Amino acid sequence: MVCKPPCLTACRMRIEILTFEGCPNARTARQRVAAALAEHAQQAELIDIEVTSSEAAQLQRFLGSPSVRINGLDVEPGADAREAYGLMCRTYYSNDAVEGAPTVKMICAAIRRALDR
């Protein structure tokens, strides 16, 4: 379930979906976030952030579109150590496949980490 900002007190997480205009995988990322939230029966404050310039990409620590963060941490393990910021498409590695959006499994794991904090 998604609650709109300002988030209700029941929300324990803030999920940011960072994209640039025209990102072909933004919709898939949003759908997968919704599926992961439903799987965990969780509410979250869902924030869409459109990154519009290279300067904004640097300030937002934007690793490419789409990026998904839960409580400020990227859903991809190890991504927070990377520094290749910019207006570019992002890829995610899942088993032997490369995808243009984080998988539901990856988002679910990030939700579990957020709930454990």
Low-confidence residue ranges: 1-9
> Can you name the CATH architecture?
3-Layer(aba) Sandwich
User: Which structural class fits the helix and strand makeup?
Assistant: alpha/beta
**Rounded radius of gyration (Å):** 13 Å
For the biggest β-sheet, the strand order reads 1-3-2-4-5
Mean pLDDT: 91
CATH top level assignment:
Alpha Beta
What portion of residues belong to β-strands?
Answer: 15-25%
Helicity range:
25-40%
Q: Order of SSEs, N→C?
A: EEHEHEEEEH
Shape: globular
How many beta strands in the DSSP annotation?
7
Give me the CATH fold name. Glutaredoxin
- The fourth-level CATH homologous superfamily is Glutaredoxin
Profile the largest sheet. 5 strands, mixed
Number of domains: 1
Helices, by number, come to: 3
Report the end-to-end length measured between terminal Cα atoms.
20 Å
What's this, in brief?
With 117 residues, the protein is α/β, with parallel strands linked by helices. It has helices spanning 26-40, 54-60, 104-116, and strands at residues 2-3, 14-19, 44-50, 67-70, 73-74, 92-94, 97-99. The protein has one domain (2-116): 3-Layer(aba) Sandwich (Glutaredoxin).
